[in-house]
Design goal:
CATH architecture of the largest domain: 3-Layer(aba) Sandwich
CATH topology of the largest domain: Aminopeptidase
Shape: globular
Largest sheet: 8 strands, mixed
Radius of gyration: 17 Å
Number of helices: 6
CATH class of the largest domain: Alpha Beta
Number of strands: 10
Distance between the termini: 20 Å
Helix content: 25-40%
CATH superfamily of the largest domain: Gcn5-related N-acetyltransferase (GNAT)
């Protein structure tokens, strides 16, 4: 249920805005709300303390929402070699979680770095910064618990990423979408440009679609 009676510059009702801003430094208030609340869900920046809960969420999301799209072999291999938290995103303060009744039920973020997809276990070497004058920011690691799918949580996460990336001067997004995620990203205005399938160490191939979208998009 969305925040009703929004009457502040942040788009939140005054009671929610007061709660959200309570633990933010004065310099941050009114610039970017790091904790966005509705009367049902709380969106905030992820911290290292969330890593265990994020890992549990990712396992449930991948296994619950990939059935019938990826084979069991692809799901198991993806969990072993690809899917997982990217701790650089947390360090960069570009990764968010959504809480419901104190439990993390969705996560996702954006990146000013080169990596297109995959958690720490999928990365090797440096992850250099992008140049917003010529490069597209990344949308990274969106996961929603199956029990909270289709409730607008991915849109909530994306809107936070959109505002942050725009503020840093990026003009476009790129992402590597799993096949279960393609319909979501199409609904968010992304267009598929090429397959960038992941050939994993055990010989399994995980289909991935590279997608792009302008930051300023007429469709939303």
């Amino acid at each position: 249920m969305a925040c009703g009676g929004a009457d502040t510059a942040s788009g939140l009702c005054r009671s929610c805005a007061s709660f959200v801003n309570a633990d933010l430094p004065e310099s941050t208030r009114g610039v970017f709300i790091a904790r966005t609340v509705t009367h049902e869900f709380l969106l905030r920046l992820a911290t290292d303390a969330d890593l265990s809960a994020i890992a549990t969420l990712i396992d449930a999301s991948v296994r619950g929402l990939s059935v019938g799209i990826y084979s069991n072999e692809q799901i198991d291999s993806g969990m072993r070699f690809v899917f997982g938290a990217d701790t650089q995103l947390i360090a960069d303060r570009t990764y968010f979680v959504v809480e419901h009744d104190g439990a993390i039920v969705a996560s996702g973020g954006w990146s000013r770095r080169h990596t297109l997809y995959g958690g720490d276990r999928h990365k090797s070497g440096a992850d250099p910064l992008l140049d917003p004058r010529v490069d597209a920011a990344r949308i990274r690691a969106f996961f929603v618990h199956p029990s909270h799918a289709r409730r607008g949580l991915a849109r909530m996460l994306f809107d936070a990423c959109l505002e942050a990336a725009r503020r840093e001067g990026f003009a476009a997004f790129e992402l590597g979408a799993t096949l279960p995620g393609v319909p979501l990203y199409r609904a968010l205005g992304f267009t598929g440009v090429e397959r960038v399938d992941a050939s994993l160490p055990d010989g399994v191939v995980l289909p991935i679609v590279k997608m792009t979208r302008p930051i300023d998009y007429d469709g939303g």
